[in-house]
Design goal:
The complex is a heterodimer of chains A (about 475) and B (about 300). Chain A is mainly alpha-helical. Chain A has 2 domains: about 180 residues, no CATH class; about 290 residues, no CATH class. Chain A has 17 helices and no strands. In chain A, helix 1 packs antiparallel against helix 2, helix 3 packs across helix 4 and helix 9 crosses helix 14. Chain A starts with 5 loop residues before the first helix and ends in a 14-residue tail after the last helix. Chain B has 16 helices and 5 strands. In chain B, strand 4, helix 14 and strand 5 form a beta-alpha-beta unit. In chain B, helix 7 packs across helix 9 and helix 13 runs parallel beside helix 14. Classes of the chains: A mainly alpha (about 475), B alpha/beta (about 300). At the A-B interface, helix 1, helix 8, helix 16 and helix 17 of A face helix 1, helix 9, helix 11 and helix 12 of B.
Chain lengths: ~475, ~300
């Protein structure tokens, strides 16, 4: 049941209507039922998995809270985290690791053919596992109290707008909203939700899916048949495909949740306007990057271990962040490049001048900001090439094609034309938001500006659907 | 914050309403293809109102039929062969295939009592196998509200597809939405046509669209509907730059349903296909003449006369 389908919106209308008619406790049960139905529509067999993950972390959270001694608390934390990660490991990484192990055995002459234990990947397993883990770890750190009701906790794990592709919520943020009565959908909530839903649908249906059509060609064609500009524009197209796809999903999730009385965290904040890698990760998939920061980077030592220690922690965090996206070397390399880049950037900052806060930093002249943006955007695109390629060999072949013949082909012209046609108005709007430094600037402006933008978004969705619709990319993660 | 969101929603709805009205008012002047589809009731009326004793002929197909058959030559040939006056109607919307032909024939010709005596179904290699590609188009143009449940059942549509079909049936703006992008991009985007072909080629190569079990239920249904009113169905594979055979299942289904497949393949040089796909006027004349001269054609007409 995709967000951009008739089924979803009819389902959502029924859910919202039910919530409107019920009191708080009834609402929670109704939302839990709806969430399990929503997840069951992808594959009902994996409902047991989500139930298991919920049960493990619910019990672990309680036991950690009740435990008298630190050793017992640690034991329950280890049990909860290990069981949750074991499920994730089996369903997401078993195939990859057995395949790589068999390759190693073949190389050592201990096996004569490659094999792998492939398991069907449940939708959104990485998202709900990380959300569940954040609860257990927050209780261990005494940052949150254990949830008393199993059904409330089950709703926290399975809340359908953000169940399969995030944002990855924190117990300290979402759980209180589950446990306490929520505000009704008034004018302000409707306004915000409407904005998020329409912009999310536009990002998915118009930007992501049209860019997918172009990027799909570049990444499916033989690299030797591609000219340099074709590869470059194909990578640009993929950069906006993945942005539109994921930011669109997150916006729709936040919008629908807002209508139901929940406030989810902002997951994207105009990432392609970033001026350096740290800035990029403060804007891209914010719920994952802050999760990795709080539960991995800081426990590893963060930036407390000197230059090399910080670089090592950054690299480890980003490598695991890459692996979180999928079981393939391309994702690991993607994470590795980001880790390296973040590390180098940190070294550069230390060499150049002492670290100052963003507020204290003087604003750069426009040409310097432009140069920083240009370099950052293209380095991000370079990492997307590794992320999207079928294999490392494929990524290298595409890089080779990028440096190959530079000629203007029909595909180049169309790709450039479509990229401008679809992206320019939206990027101009994002630029305006960026200048205002306010995600909700449009909601505060005169109603006709919103009406104008919404008419544009809806017309583009109706009149410029993609030649071939594509599924949400992050459902596979 | 002022409470102005109702104005925003109202403005959005008003804009959509205006566009819906615009789509309904200007659809025929903006698209030749839509104009043709909207003329189908008139095409059907021509057959229905033909004087008694007239041989009523319907040419069914897509742009291959429109460009491939010389209608005047065909009418003369049929008149000469049957010794009866001939009324020819056409239904050849661009990009249509067996689903559109089946539902369109039923809606415009069968249900209105405009059944032809002879249906010439002009097809390419893969147009007769099942595989609904344009749900909106079938629902909007070839199905009435009354037929919609039957359409949903026959195609086995799920809940989402049923909603989509209903939306396409209800809204001209929604039904035409896939026509806007090609209209704009083919005319204004440099290299778009070549890019579409290139991307399609890459997609086909990387993910071949082979179906596990091809079926021809739409063809069978069309043939049964035509046969039930005493009509004769002739399937005419239109020449393409590369010679081809219809799939065996299509031939078998046609035979089972009492239809005939007529292969007339005159030697046509590539120059007769100026766009690489459709016949030019001279090519159409050559192929139509080859059809009229073929013994299978004569046998088919004789069989029809004997009915």
């Amino acid at each position: 049941m995709w967000f951009n389908s008739f089924e979803f919106w009819i389902f959502f209308a029924l859910v919202a209507l039910g919530c409107r008619l019920m009191r708080h406790a009834g609402q929670n049960r109704w939302l839990l039922l709806a969430s399990y139905f929503f997840y069951g529509c992808y594959d009902w067999r994996f409902l047991s998995l989500i139930l298991f993950c919920t049960w493990v972390n619910f019990i672990a959270g309680r036991r950690i809270h009740e435990a008298a001694c630190p050793q017992a608390r640690r034991r329950w934390l280890t049990a909860g985290v290990t069981l949750s990660l074991a499920v994730l490991g089996v369903f997401k990484y078993l195939g990859f690791f057995t395949r790589e192990a068999s390759r190693l055995l073949m190389w050592a002459g201990l096996a004569d053919h490659r094999w792998a234990l492939e398991v069907l990947l449940p939708a959104g397993i990485s998202f709900f596992t990380f959300q569940a883990l954040s609860y257990t770890m927050d209780i261990y750190r005494a940052e949150t109290k254990p949830c008393r009701s199993f059904s409330d906790f089950a709703l926290y794990i399975s809340f359908f707008p953000q169940l399969v592709a995030g944002p990855i919520e924190r117990s300290s943020h979402l759980l209180p909203q589950v446990e306490q009565p929520r505000p009704k959908c008034d004018e302000a909530r409707f306004r915000k939700g409407f904005y998020l839903v329409l912009s999310g649908l536009f990002l998915k249906v118009v930007i992501a899916d049209n860019m997918a059509w172009l990027a799909g060609h570049v990444f499916a064609a033989s690299p030797s048949s591609l000219a340099g500009p074709e590869v470059l524009l194909g990578v640009y197209a993929f950069a906006f495909q993945i942005y539109g796809d994921f930011a669109g999903y997150s916006a729709i999730a936040c919008g629908t949740a807002c209508w139901l009385g929940f406030d989810l965290m902002t997951n994207f904040r105009r990432p392609y306007f970033a001026l350096d890698p740290r800035d990029f990760w403060q804007r891209w998939h914010i719920s994952l990057s802050t999760w990795l920061r709080d539960y991995l980077y800081i426990p590893l030592g963060g930036n407390r271990g000197g230059g090399w220690g910080t670089a090592r922690n950054l690299m480890l965090t980003m490598l695991l962040g890459g692996l979180w996206h999928g079981a393939a070397w391309t994702f690991i390399v993607w994470g590795g490049i980001h880790g390296l880049w973040l590390g180098l950037h940190r070294v550069w900052l230390r060499v150049k001048k002492p670290v100052v806060t963003a507020e204290a930093r003087p604003s750069a002249p426009w040409w310097l900001a432009g140069a920083k943006w240009f370099v950052t955007f293209h380095l991000v695109c370079l990492t997307w090439l590794a992320f999207r390629a079928d294999s490392l060999r494929h990524a290298l072949a595409l890089l080779g094609a990028l440096g190959g013949k530079w000629e203007v082909t029909d595909f180049t012209l169309t790709c450039a034309g479509m990229t401008f046609f679809f992206l320019l108005p939206w990027l101009a709007y994002e630029f305006w938001l960026e200048r205002r430094k306010d995600d909700e600037a449009l909601l505060k402006s005169a109603w006709w500006w919103r009406a104008g933008l919404y008419v544009y978004l809806v017309l583009m969705m109706i009149c410029f659907p993609p030649p071939a619709p594509a599924e949400f990319i992050y459902f596979r993660f | 914050m002022k409470k102005t969101e109702s104005l925003v929603v109202l403005a959005l709805l008003l804009a959509l309403l205006l566009l819906e009205c615009g789509a309904r008012m200007f659809e025929t002047s903006l698209s030749k293809d839509v104009a043709h589809i909207r003329s189908l009731p008139a095409e059907a009326a021509r057959l229905r109102q033909a004087p008694a004793g007239t041989l009523k002929v319907l040419i069914l197909g897509n742009s291959l039929a429109r460009c491939g058959l010389d209608r005047a030559l065909l009418a003369r040939g049929l008149e000469a062969a049957s010794r009866r006056p001939v009324a020819v109607s056409v239904m050849h919307p661009d990009g249509s295939r067996v689903e559109e032909w089946r539902h369109g024939y039923r809606r415009y010709f069968d249900q209105t009592g405009s059944q032809p005596d002879l249906v010439l179904l002009c097809t390419g290699r893969l147009h007769l196998e099942d595989g609904l590609r344009d749900l909106d188009s079938v629902a909007a143009f070839y199905t009435s509200w009354a037929d919609l449940p039957a359409f949903v059942r026959s195609e086995g549509l799920g809940f989402g597809d049923t909603c989509q079909a209903a939306a396409a049936r209800a809204s001209a703006l929604f039904a035409h939405r896939r026509r806007v992008q090609p209209l704009v991009f083919y005319n204004f985007m440099p290299g778009y046509e070549q890019t579409v072909n290139l991307v399609q080629k890459t997609r086909n190569a990387s993910a071949p669209t082979t179906r596990a079990s091809p079926s021809c239920s739409n063809l069978a249904s069309l043939a049964t509907t035509i046969g039930a009113s005493g009509g004769t169905l002739l399937i005419l594979p239109v020449p393409l730059p590369e010679s081809y055979e219809l799939p065996a299942l299509v031939k078998q289904t046609a035979v089972n349903a009492g239809a005939r497949v007529l292969h007339a393949s005159p030697a046509l040089p590539p120059s007769r296909f100026p766009d690489g796909y459709h016949l030019d006027e001279e090519g159409a004349r050559i192929w139509t003449q080859a059809l009229l001269d073929s013994p299978e054609w004569k046998a088919a007409l004789a069989g029809m006369a004997a009915k």
